[in-house]
Please model this.
Amino acid sequence: MFRRLALIGTGLIGGSLALALRERGEVGEVVGYSRRLDTRLAAERLGLIDRPADSISEAVAGADIVFLATPVKAMDAVLGELATCLPDDALVTDGGSVKGAVVERARAHLSAAQLARFVPGHPIAGRERSGPEAATAELYRGHRVILTPIAENRAEDVARIEAMWQAVGARVEQLDVAHHDHVLAATSHLPHAAAFAMVSSLARLAERYEVFRYAAGGFCDFTRIASSDPVMWRDICLDNRNEILAMLDHYRAELDCLRDMLESADGEAIESYFAEAKAVRDALYPAAQADLTSRPDTRGA
Ligand SMILES: NC(=O)C1=CN([C@@H]2O[C@H](COP(=O)(O)OP(=O)(O)OC[C@H]3O[C@@H](n4cnc5c(N)ncnc54)[C@H](O)[C@@H]3O)[C@@H](O)[C@H]2O)C=CC1
Ligand SMILES: O=C(O)C(=O)Cc1ccc(O)cc1
Model:
């Protein structure tokens, strides 16, 4: 499918794509660049890449596909550098969790011809661990990948990126850039923000050791994602700030509503509030995920 993949960011998301494409024989060679030398060397040692490069220009030389898998704010400098060295025939895509800000960065740095060959994307697959050691060839199997093509893209380039993700077992869909950021603020960014806040609130309790000692499964389910990478999530929060602020306000209103019911010890209201939430989750979540047949109801995204 591709002659040479240039991976910019050789951590969980980039490393997993490289591993999966290599395992399936979909790419001839993978060259990886990450900011830190030890990450590049770890990626080589773990078999994610064939060889490390010492710069972005070295990584992309001779590449026909470039995958950007750094935290979203780092893509500013990466795209700036890429504009000076991208081969004419190379396609570029990314795995960033926010799309509006990444597209803005691409528009700011790339020439018109380069921009046309940049197809933004976002795999809805990942975990709370990061770095090359966390990469697996199966990460994307049975998961959705959202592409957010821009007006400048050619249909055949979008189709090639779609085929790349399908080759690693993903189900590809398309959303408008702004709509992606609106929906993902609800489904991914709010839960992560809430998990970080929940753990922070418990960590400030005097009895915090006991809280963690006697934690039940529900605590783990709700807070696993608070172990996610702080730099990555700082960038996501800042890049999708307005959408996340709106979702936080919406969520806070529900917490206030629950608090009022509890304060007035209104058992009937609490029960019907919980029953409504349970009914919605029981019905909607499995139905909305039914096309992803390999996915059980509960596990990491
Ligand atoms: N972790 C997750 O579950 C998911 C993450 N994403 C997105 O994928 C992207 C990568 O995330 P992960 O792979 O989890 O992170 P990671 O921390 O595992 O890997 C990021 C890599 O980027 C490198 N890097 C950082 N700044 C750089 C720079 N200026 N130039 C070159 N390399 C640089 C780091 O050295 C590291 O190797 C992020 O944009 C994130 O929002 C998308 C879906 C899921
Ligand atoms: O660890 C989890 O459960 C996740 O939700 C991973 C994740 C993190 C960021 C994304 O943009 C998409 C998926």
The mean pLDDT is 96. Residues 97, 124, 126-128, 188, 225, 300-301 surround 3-(4-hydroxy-phenyl)pyruvic acid (ligand 2) (CB under 6 Å).
